[in-house]
Design goal:
heterotrimer, A alpha+beta (203), B alpha+beta (283), C alpha+beta (263), A: 203 residues, alpha+beta, OB fold (Dihydrolipoamide Acetyltransferase, E2P), Ribosomal Protein S8, Chain: A, domain 1, 3 domains, 16 strands, C: 263 residues, elongated
Chain lengths: 203, 283, 263
């Protein structure tokens, strides 16, 4: 059963596997953030309702060029630190505001992320979501992503850092679908529901 | 009746009709400032405050950054018309001191080691006041931080407590602060561990009186905690979602304090500010 | 808003503007929705909260007893201050008033003062000795552009509802007692435009202000007078553009006057 918890609130009095956003005090598991738990799960995990992205190795992220210097680019990836891409690592030239998709190579103790395989994305629009929602937008085996792509005819890139890049197609419809997913993220059969929603709007 | 004649031990109720252990009406709404990461608006008696959180973000100026943890920077300010005699713009020494102690209180509750080299900016602005603005700001700031998704060990719940007119009382209002024997003690705790993160006092108390004050103060903080909890849960109620197994009441926009006290105007001292037709603020 | 994201939003605003469109779907000459709440601050002689789209501004008035200037012994005074609180936007800083904040306060002040809507003689308590000084301060609580017009509307409503405190025989204020209201004979209002992508648009959002090549504010009264003007930011306007904006300002400010006439 889903339950809202606030920072400090006890998530479980028993021992459980520890997920994200929890800490242990005196043998009890507490939430660190305002979020949702599933108290029937065997993992004590709090899905934060908000929050900046915390970089993880191998995540694909969508960044925005925030700073251009001689040596390279400061890229903002919706985290508290910028990532730096040396000029020679980018095949294309980039300017302030350009959208880059890249993979996180590795993360240091200061949570600064190194990016690899940076690629510039042309045109298109960025839709901001909360980072924790990204997996839901992709779905199992990219099932949700397929539904979204087919239902809106957009070219879509989903970054794990809470950013969706979309181009062409019906972007307004995509935004609607994303809102729908956000509001109903905890429900089952969501993929089908989204498919129905998009079909309905297309008419 | 002059101030000297008031004796709470005799009257058994306070100037505004409250019991000794009763808070003034308290309501909180979160997510009221779209530009901020997290925000809250709080009304406590006549006090009205806004709190907004920006961060974690790059710490500027750079020399203020700490490579081991986030720096929590609180700015407590009051608008010029929040007090009976106009306050000149710009922070004064009181603002500075309050900003410091609020920052220290919140710092203890935040997992600052998770965000080295960053700053968490917490801005609290008092738009109307009547004693207890700093604890109002602390309670609001705590909700704003939670609203911002900043990881914390616990909320910070705060209240004023002390003594006036011969009795130990909770949440002094301005008339009580002006009592000849008034002692005002802002206190804040982390509700789960009961750790005290803010404690100030001005005025004389006996050692025995302190014990009663401390006990009452902690109880008062727990009352505030209930209102903070409900305000946060309400903001994010999702359809059928429950809080501790109970459906959250939908009705109002704001979360009213559980303490059901309607301050009665009748007993209020003439000196307190006029009760004009007070319209509810649209956020 | 981080620099990179802002740059993105700005280029979007500019390309939309070139087609005569705006990010929020408004027409170029359309105001955002305005809401008004009053009297929330009990310590103030008057207070008003305005929302203009997502911009939220709180204005409040404190009346104090002061001594008149020697050259105007029978006149009181008003003083208008403005603050873009750090609460309101990641970019707003605390500290001494920035150039923008000072300009904001002074432009709103001029629009009001030059309309002569407040008769300073009405603020005289005792000639040569005591006069009312009205301090109006307005604060941005959430900043999404056009603090000028939001400041102007909230100041106007706040002044109109100003309660005059009662004085004792030594001309000291008796707290909590009032006698009469501040009188305003007109409703001066600022109307602000920006030029984005070569097109003139009314009531800019934060992004539109950042995208602007130039900005223009004009204060008008309902009797057809202009009481203040300010061109801001860089860039330039042609005379035709200025005339267009002045004519528009009369029309749009009148709509607002209708909406707030009972406030």
């Amino acid at each position: 059963m889903k339950q809202i918890v606030i920072p400090g609130e006890i998530v479980s009095e028993e021992r459980k596997r520890l997920g994200s956003n929890v800490y242990v005090l005196n043998g009890k598991i507490h939430s660190k953030v305002l979020g949702i738990i599933d108290n029937e799960s065997d993992t004590a995990d709090v899905v934060a309702l908000k929050g900046t992205y915390i970089p993880k190795r191998d995540d694909t992220v969508i960044g925005i060029v925030n700073r251009v210097v001689f040596a390279g680019y400061g890229v903002e990836i919706n985290s508290f630190n910028e990532s730096f891409i040396p000029r020679k690592a980018m095949r294309q030239e980039a300017k302030l505001g350009d959208i880059i998709v890249a993979k996180i190579d590795d993360v240091n103790e200061l949570k600064e992320a190194n990016l690899s395989y940076p690629k510039k994305l042309y045109d298109g629009e960025i839709i901001q979501i909360i980072p924790v929602r990204s997996p839901r937008l992709i779905g199992k085996n990219a099932s949700m992503l397929d539904v979204l792509t087919n239902g809106t005819n957009c070219e879509i890139f989903i970054g794990k850092n809470g950013r969706v890049w979309a181009k062409d197609g019906n972007i307004d419809l995509l935004k609607k679908a994303i809102n729908f997913i956000d509001e109903n993220s905890y429900k089952s059969n969501l993929t089908n529901a989204v498919e129905e929603l998009l079909k309905g709007e297309k008419k | 009746m002059t101030m000297q004649d008031i004796d709470y031990k005799k009257t058994k109720t306070r100037l505004d009709g409250r019991k000794m252990n009763e808070l003034r009406p308290l309501s909180i709404e979160v997510g009221v400032i779209p530009n901020a990461q997290g925000s809250a608006y709080l009304e406590w008696g006549q006090n009205k405050v806004y709190a907004a959180v920006y961060g974690p973000r790059e710490a500027l100026p750079k020399h203020t950054a700490n490579s081991l943890k986030a720096v929590v920077k609180v700015e407590y300010r009051m608008v010029s018309f929040s007090v009976p005699d106009r306050k000149r713009p710009g922070p004064n020494r009181r603002d500075q001191e309050i900003s410091k102690v609020l920052g220290e209180a919140l710092d203890h509750a935040i997992f600052t080691e998770q965000f080295p080299n960053t700053e968490i900016g917490v801005y609290v602005e008092v738009i109307d006041s009547n004693a207890g603005s700093r604890v109002a700001c602390l309670a609001a700031a705590s909700c704003a931080l939670a609203d911002a998704g900043i990881p914390m060990k616990d909320l910070v719940s705060a209240t004023g407590v002390g003594k006036a007119y011969g009795e130990i009382i909770l949440d002094l209002n301005k008339d009580e602060e002006d009592a000849p024997d008034a002692v005002d003690i802002p206190i804040a705790i982390m509700p789960n561990s009961k750790e005290i993160v803010l404690l100030q006092m001005d005025g004389p108390l006996t050692r025995k009186e302190w014990d009663s004050v401390a006990k009452l103060g902690m109880e008062g903080c727990m009352q505030v905690y209930e209102v903070q909890k409900a305000a946060l849960a309400k903001k994010y109620e999702i359809g059928e979602a429950l809080v501790n197994g109970k459906k959250i009441a939908k009705a109002e926009n704001k979360t009213e304090s559980k303490v059901e006290n309607k301050t009665t105007d009748k007993k209020e001292d003439k000196k307190s500010s006029a009760k004009t037709t007070k319209k509810k603020v649209k956020k | 808003m981080r620099a990179g994201i802002l740059a993105n939003e700005i280029s979007k605003a500019v390309s939309l503007a070139r087609e005569g469109k705006r990010s929020d779907g408004r027409a170029l000459d359309e105001y955002r929705k305005i809401t008004v709440s009053k009297d929330m601050c009990e310590n103030a002689e008057s207070s008003t909260m305005i929302t203009l789209g997502k911009t939220k501004v709180l204005a409040g008035l404190k009346l104090t007893v002061g001594t008149p200037y020697p050259d105007s012994p029978a006149e009181g005074a008003i003083s208008i201050g403005a603050e873009a609180l750090p609460l309101a936007h990641a970019e707003y800083e605390s500290g001494r008033p920035s150039n923008d904040e000072v300009e904001l306060a002074r432009v709103v002040d001029r629009g009001l003062r030059e309309s002569k809507a407040i008769d300073f003689a009405q603020l005289c308590i005792k000639e040569g000795e005591a006069v009312w000084v009205g301090y109006l301060d307005f604060y941005a609580i959430n900043g999404d552009g056009n603090l000028f017009d939001a400041g102007s509307i909230s100041s106007l409503i706040t002044f109109r509802n100003g309660k005059m405190p009662k004085l004792d025989k030594n001309n000291k204020i008796i707290y909590g007692e009032f006698d009469g209201k501040l009188k305003m004979t007109k409703m001066p209002l600022l109307t602000t435009f920006v030029k984005v992508g070569g097109k003139i648009m009314l009531d800019p959002t934060f992004v539109e202000e950042k995208a602007a090549e130039a900005r223009y504010s004009v204060a008008t009264t309902e009797d057809g007078n202009l009481t203040a003007m300010q061109k801001g930011v860089g860039g330039s306007f042609t005379l035709e553009e200025v005339n267009y904006m002045i004519d528009k300002a009369f029309v749009e400010s009148e709509k607002i006057r209708k909406q707030i006439k009972n406030e």
